[in-house]
Specification:
single chain, 511 residues, alpha/beta, Rossmann fold, GMP Synthetase, Chain A, domain 3, 5-stranded parallel sheet, globular, binds xanthosine-5'-monophosphate
Length: 511
């Protein structure tokens, strides 16, 4: 398989470069710029992209380009800082622009060249830089300019080295994907074979090789990542996989049955369902502090999971739904430092004599790739493209102390809201939608008289990364219908409110 290596200089956009390259159909990974050069050689890339970064090439200890990058004889594309570092390296000049430049710029292509093939003579691009190249290195020619950065693109065609000052990986840059594709496919000659079908074949093969005849345990939550791991492992190793599904009484309406139906009944996966509602409810008794509740739910989960797991014999691996953004988040980029096999203590407190090795088959995949793999392996798109659901479940959506009745009321209200969104065709227009149970009482009048009952809050947000979010401007008609249905159908609710708080200052969940 042909691969592109992305050397990470710390730009907030580096992850996007990897995603775009993979969307083009070529596998790519992030490596820290100061990784051991042997790791780069071993990776054997068809081409290298140097990312942007926050530093100035003149700063003390500024990141540089390791020699190995230019020893491999492969094309190199420097983006922003990557371009400046390349310029420094080959004797060009980089100077401070005096002011930072963020936002749109018009780039003019000054010489026909393979990087800008199939793009117009001028294009709107996204700039984000302080320094700029003011003199090109010898052997480089100018290929693009803007009014504020006269050297916005350069090339050494003989060696296939290119540099651009702007960011082709962000969607604001018109034809950015064409530029990346020109580099990856045409200039590097990488074969675009990173397709869902190939990904599945490769994952299955890898799992079979790693696991051999051993047995694997998976905690199945019903969320996307663990669900995809379940179908993948089932395809790869069949009955050698056992899943433990803990029903904590804090799931969405019918969720437990759906998980069993999908995995055990339809797909034939070994799933042990542990009905642990009582245990969770007693663990939550008397707790109203959100963090204490989260802790109690976490601990109880581990207890229940361990108990179920310890009844199983001969398990060698514990599978987890870790995905590439989790890996990048913890390490930034591949650092070349020995990959620390996390002990099972990170997952739970499995008995000491059950020393399990960790199996993380999705750790190289982005979320959208995980979803596509899930669908290719036979999971229903409705499940794979479902809104995220927090680990502690309804436990953090029932404010204050949790009990069974509150959970039941919330489950029903939530289901009405989600059903209405789906029917209106708006479910995928929002990133996350749910109901929250407020344990306060409010007076209402219904057909049969006065009702003194609880309040349900509806929350729907739009967000890209869940770090910031805006409340969704849902149609009044829809909110009206949902509110009527909830109060009519659930006697324990007298009032419905809609949350119009953004994040910040609010969080998405209420606890
Ligand atoms: P907040 O409420 O922090 O949520 O704005 C951001 C995203 O994270 C989810 N979330 C959680 N997920 N365990 C989880 O697995 C948690 O304790 C938790 N708290 C929040 C939330 O649903 C949203 O998607």
């Amino acid at each position: 398989m042909d691969k592109i290596l992305i050397l990470d200089y710390g730009s907030q956009y580096t992850q996007l470069i990897a995603r775009r390259v993979r969307e083009i159909g070529v596998y790519s990974e992030l490596f820290a710029w100061d990784i051991n050069p042997d790791n780069i050689r071993e990776y054997n890339p068809k081409g290298i992209i140097l990312s942007g970064g926050p530093e100035s090439v003149h700063a003390d200890g500024a990141p540089t380009i390791p020699d190995v990058v230019f020893e491999l004889g492969v094309p190199v594309l420097g983006i922003c800082y990557g371009m400046q570092a390349m310029s420094e390296r080959f004797g060009g000049k980089v100077e401070s622009s005096g002011k930072q430049e963020f936002g749109y710029a018009k780039v003019e292509v000054t010489a026909e060249n393979p990087l800008f093939a199939e793009t117009p003579a001028t294009l709107d691009v996204w700039m984000s830089h302080g320094d700029k190249v003011t003199r090109m290195p010898a052997d480089f020619e100018l290929v693009a300019q803007t009014s504020s950065a006269p050297i916005s693109g350069f090339a050494n065609r003989e060696k296939h080295y290119y540099g651009i000052q702007f960011h082709p990986e962000v969607t604001h840059t018109a034809h950015g994907k064409t530029l990346l594709s020109n580099f990856v496919v045409d200039i590097c000659g990488a074969e675009a074979d990173w397709t869902t079908g190939n990904i599945v074949d490769r994952l299955v093969e890898d799992v079979r090789q790693t696991v051999g005849n051993d047995k694997v345990l998976l905690g199945l939550s019903g969320g996307v990542d663990s669900s995809v791991v379940a179908v993948l492992l089932h395809k790869a190793i069949g009955d050698q996989l056992t899943c433990v599904f803990v029903d904590n009484g804090l799931l969405r309406l019918n969720e437990g049955d759906q998980v069993m139906e999908t995995f055990a009944k339809n797909l034939g996966v070994n799933v042990i369902r542990v009905d642990a509602e009582d245990k969770f409810m007693s663990a939550l008794k008397g707790l109203d502090d959100p963090e204490a509740k989260r802790k109690a739910i976490g601990h109880t989960f581990i207890e229940v999971f361990d108990e179920a797991a310890s009844s199983l014999d001969g398990i060698k691996y514990l599978a987890q739904g870790t995905i590439y953004p989790d890996v990048i988040e913890s390490a930034g980029a591949k650092t070349g430092k020995a990959h620390v096999i996390k002990s099972h203590h990170n997952v739970g407190g499995l008995p000491e004599d059950m020393a399990l090795a960790l199996l993380e088959p999705l750790r190289d995949l982005f979320k959208d790739e995980v979803r596509e793999v899930g669908v290719a392996l036979g999971l229903a798109p409705e499940m794979v493209y479902r809104h995220p659901f927090p680990g502690p479940g309804l436990g953090v959506r029932i404010l204050g102390e949790v009990n069974r009745d509150f959970a039941e009321t919330l489950r029903r209200a939530d289901a009405i809201f989600i059903e209405a969104l789906v029917e209106a065709g708006l479910y995928h227009d929002v990133s996350q939608a749910f109901a929250v149970f407020l344990p306060v009482k409010s007076v209402g009048v219904t057909g049969d008289g006065r009702r003194y009952a609880h309040v349900i809050a509806l929350r729907a947000v739009k967000t890209i990364d869940f770090m910031t979010a805006e409340w969704a401007r849902l149609p009044y008609e829809l909110l009206d219908e949902v509110s009527r249905r909830i109060v009519n159908e659930i006697s324990d609710v007298s009032r419905v409110v809609y949350d119009i708080t953004g994040k910040p200052p609010g969080t998405i969940e209420w606890e």
